[in-house]
Amino acid sequence: MPAEPLSADRLYRRVDPAELPFRSTEEVPDLTTVIGQDRAVEALEFGIGIRQDGYNLFVHGPRASGRHALVKRFLSEKAKGEQAPADWVYVNNFAEPRKPRALRLPPGRATCLKTDVERFIDDLRAALPALFEGDDYRNRRLAIDTEFQERQEHAFQGLQEEAQRRGLALVRTPMGLAVAPVRGNEVMPPEEFQKLPETERERIQRDIEELQGRLQQTVLKLPEWERERRQRVRDLNRELTVAVVANLVGQLKAAYADLPDISQHVEAMQKDIAENVEAFLPQAEPPTPAVRPPAEAAPHHLDGRRPAPLRRYLVNVMVSSDGSLSGAPCVIEDLPTQANLVGRVEHLAEMGALVTDFALIRPGALHRANGGYLIVDSLKLLQSPMSWESLKRALRAQRIHIESAAQMLSLISTVSLEPEPIPLAVKVALIGDRQLYYLLSAYDPEFADLFKVEVDLAEDTKRTPESVKDYAQLIATIVRRNQLKPFARDAVARVVEHAARLAGDSGRITVQVGILGDLLREADYWARNGRVGAGDVERAIRAQRRRSDRIAERMQDMVLEETVMVDTDGAKVGQINGLAVYGLGNVAFGRPSRITARVRLGSGEVIDIERRVELGGPLHSKGVLILSGFLAARYAADRPLSLSATLVFEQSYSGVDGDSASSTELYALLSALSGLPIGQNFAVTGSVNQMGEVQAIGGVNEKIEGFFDLCQARGLNGRQGVLIPVANVRHLMLKPEVVEAVAAGRFRVFPIASIDQGIEVLTGVPAGTPQADDQFPPGSVNRMVQDRLNELTEQRRRFGAALRPDEAPSQPDKEARP
Amino acid sequence: MSSFSSPIRRIMVALDAHAWDLDALEQVAELALELHAELAGLFVEDINLFRLCELPGGEVSLASGSLRRPEREAMERDLRGQAEMARRTLERVAVQRRLAWSFRVTRGRTEETVLGAAGEADLVALARRHRGFRQAASHERVGRQRQAVAAHYRGGEGAKRVLDVALRAAARTGGRLLVLLPDDDPAAAGRLEAEIAAVLASSAIGFEILRFGPSVKGLAAALEQTRARLLVLEASVARAIEAVMPEVAVDLLLVREPDRQPASNSAT
């Protein structure tokens, strides 16, 4: 059946504004459901509801599909109805400062604990100095000091007296003490000593040696006495401190008696305070153990009111619910670096060294989301070094283990903290592209175990009266949320029509709300009165296109200038206009391209020149092989296909892929074989199968408009048109200029079901169907093709026979020559 | 406080191998700042130490208890090092307060040399608090101990000057003032007490009068009993008690009698 051009009403499926039951979006209520995402919503509800390990979500869908907003909305609503999670704090581990302890508290009590402990410390700072300034302490301390001073003095005094009895004295030297003979208050001059009788000198020498020995023994006792004195002082300090601390700590213990871990920590703190009471005294030197505990290493400014030694008693709140937060947390981490995810231990440069303590532990998104939900963009996550590994590790272990990338990779060996891991119970929702989801599924064996819930967001939905009504509500919602001018119903209708165009299907509408929102905002911008009309929407659409069509316009100019050769009128053998779609960023446009075919005697090969030079992709090659199959099966089923054909996209300098030009190439080949010229007023798109049926392709609207724009620029003559697969008719949502031109009979769009239909339109000659003798009728395209192929086969046979030696004449060679 | 009839222009700080407590040195510097006086450092290399090098026996280190034979060269080197350290300390303390300062090193017996040089200055500060054997042990301060300033009072213009200086020192340290009165003659002591009360009547500093006697041994006992940090006394009195000075573990501030003018500044 010959193909007939489509009527104008088949080229664009309008939304009749009159069918919309409102005058403007002001009358339309908000959309409470999610349009076109039933499957995704079901998956989301399932993923949020199920409380089992590994049931985290991966939400994938196209960009601008509103996936972030959708997930955030669902998770936030769910989180609101849930219980607030436990608070967590890090405190000093007095036994092992390198391993700070993580303590769990009921919601909201972490901040109270921090405040209570600070108040307790402040109270101690006031009470302890007063205690140590008091007469009672001073007298007892003085007694200890005096006792030990007297012990020392007594020891030395005894030596001194013994020395005096022997005419000697203890003399202070720059480095210590010496025993020397004296005269009065002076050391005996050496010359006088030499004048003494030898026996006297020997006696003095013996006495000196003996006293020196005793002096040495005494000096060696000094450190022991000093240790003993310090211990006595410490005991005294502890005795007094314990009483004061016990009095002040009572309130603290009572307030947290219901929390055994906190009580245990308070007791450890109480014990530590008794051991380090000097830290609370003004101008006291901090204790100087061989290895400084990290808590003492940080400078004062971190907690301006408290000196560094007291930082060890502080409470570092990692996460705490406050009064304004109801329900579980729902955290969105925009910058999912490893540190931002699992937390980090900060360091400070102090005297050229990096120091840290438990108070410098900072929470990550997992801490904040613990007990609730965490939303992360998967691409950002994968782009951040070690983040993906850390997240998986945390989810697998169900614990947050703070470890820097440098530590994980053993890049640094400086001493740092090993904070006690915090138990993790979080639902993670990753958001990303489909490709990422499938790549992770294929290449990361842990992915499927940790992200068991796939939430697949659709690009579009069916266009039905109900969905159009929902779409109007969606438009109204976006308008109100963005405080845009109301959209009149003709504007809404135009937006829905454009949504169908964006979906590339007159029977579907896009649900990519990001793109929709952009259009609404831009239409609002162009609207010059209080309401947005269809004209404003149209202007916004054209302005969008205008902003992005510089390259498309330049390419068309090159054709008009005949730098690139594309005919739009006349007829040529073996030459046809194909249609290609160019995707640049967010825009796509179609442009015609000349395809030519040449045939000659050969061994049945159809050469895809694009493939030979590696400019053609696999799909294009597949199309060429299919058309070869069709050609051989239809015209040379019982004989060798004795042609060699070449196919090429003329003036194509970049890659070509897809099979949408396979029918076009076949037409060119048939023209070359039959010798029938093809009308250059046509452009063709459509793939072909081995049965000669024309199949659907993508980008049909852009392709038609691409050829239309060129013809319009050269002048429409009524003969021009595009051949498209009949299966693509439902996708047509052409721009108004095309529709108007078709309505006016100045342009045509042919729906093509088979190669025979198409070749008839292109050549104006009947294709011809096989008759009883399996021959095509004389004068038909197919007959001409068949005859030409038969002729080639015969030529080949003759040519082959002439070359075969056993069939050659028996005359000498020279006689065989012409 | 009263002002001196003849101003105090020069304060000599006697420095020897036993380093000054930095706090005490700073107190002297503050006094100099208040009185617009210059600081003159005098480091005495005790000749007794050199004699040790030529006598039998060794030096027992207080840090380690080890015994070593004192060598003259090593002793000189040690003393030079300590003199340099003392000079730097004095310089730092003086420069911080923009005080004029000088420093010189001499050799002799410490007390004798210092007392001999006392005529060159209006005040002589002599560190003695850490001279006792108790220095061998490390000292640990407990809180902010207020220690007393003692003034030896025997009446007359010189004693009033002693009282004035002691008052200033006590005011600076926030300690109390102990006035030590010789109790040789009870009637005279009573008169002196009334005199002291009259002088200190307008002072805001709390004071206490203690009688001691009957000899310089009594003074030493009183100082030990009160644990005074600083003793202010007339230089001539110091000469009289020179014999017991080694036993007195208290810093001394010797005030020149008003009728004696200091000698011109010696070379630094």
Biggest sheet of chain B, open or closed, and with what strands and sense?
A: 9 strands, mixed
Structural class of chain A: alpha/beta
Mean pLDDT of chain A: 87
Say what oligomer this is.
heterodimer
CATH class of the largest domain in chain B: Alpha Beta
SS field, number of helical segments of chain B:
8
Whole-angstrom Rg of chain A: 47 Å
Explain this structure to me?
The complex is a heterodimer of chains A (818) and B (268). Chain A is α/β, with parallel strands linked by helices and 818 residues long. Chain A folds into four domains: 18-34 and 460-548, Helicase, Ruva Protein, domain 3 (Orthogonal Bundle); 37-85 and 321-457, P-loop containing nucleotide triphosphate hydrolases (Rossmann fold, 3-Layer(aba) Sandwich), CATH 3.40.50.300; 110-314, no CATH class; 554-798, Ribosomal Protein S5, domain 2 (2-Layer Sandwich), CATH 3.30.230.10. Chain A is built from 27 helices and 30 strands. Chain A starts with 37 loop residues before the first helix and ends with a helix. Chain B folds into two domains: 9-56 and 70-127, Rossmann fold (3-Layer(aba) Sandwich), CATH 3.40.50; 129-135 and 146-256, Rossmann fold. Chain B has eight helices and eleven strands. In chain B, helix 1 (22-35) packs across helix 5 (157-173). The chains are: A alpha/beta (818), B alpha/beta (268). Strand 5 (176-183) of chain A pairs antiparallel with strand 3 (59-61) of chain B, so a sheet runs across the interface.
